[in-house]
Amino acid sequence: VTPVNGAPATPGTISGNATACEGATEDYSIAAVPNTNFYTWTLPAGSTLNSGDSTTQIETTFGSTSGNITVTATNGCGTSAASTLAITLTPNVTPAVTIAITDGSSPACNGTSVTYTATPTNGGANPTYAWYLNGVQVANTIDYTSTTFADGDQIYCEMTSDITCVTQPTATSSVMTQNIQPNVVPTISISNITAMPVCDGDTIAFTSAVTNEGSNPIYDWQVNGVSHGIMATFSPDSLSNGDTVICT
Hints:
The chain is an all-beta fold and about 250 residues long. About 0% of the residues lie in helices and about 45% in strands. The chain has no helices and 24 strands. Strands 1, 3, 6, 7 and 8 form a 5-stranded mixed β-sheet that branches. Strands 12, 13, 15, 16 and 17 form a 5-stranded antiparallel β-sheet that branches. β12 and β13 form a beta hairpin. The termini are far apart. The model has no long low-confidence stretch (mean pLDDT about 95).
């Protein structure tokens, strides 16, 4: 029989991460201490010891409070001094992403370029992006540009943060609807509203009939290729027989 003289020696260095995320599960261990019957571990407030009580290796799930992990060795003659590892817990953050049109508009004309840009929150140094058009992934950069949008297209973005301590790594933006207006062709015709024929020197009034002119159309009345008016109707001071009148 080998007699045991006194309490065990102080356990050696505790192996494991000294920094962790709030709520993380981590393993910690020590080398076995000679002449030890069991080990006693203590954890930061709010932490849970999942397994390994009384052994050289434990698994713990942290709460939200930083503190110390300690371990002592015990035999029939007493308990050792404690070995200590200071634990720093990092709060978890929640990633988010918003999207907006940064070039172009909605509604936009058919075939024009529209750019959507993602703005991340808690994305870290190098977040990654996945853009979806009507549920199909179409781009993986911070911007998404297209000239082929159709009316009613649905656009959203997923952003994955590279921050270590997050409540969840991926955030999804709200869905934006892209409205597209069809391209139309303006038309114009002109007619005189003065009874014909007229005598030399009489005033002749012309009017225009237009389609797809918009809210503020600009007219250009020309006599023999020379501009004379910009209104919807036109009454030249004088015309000569054979003059050509057009409006664009």
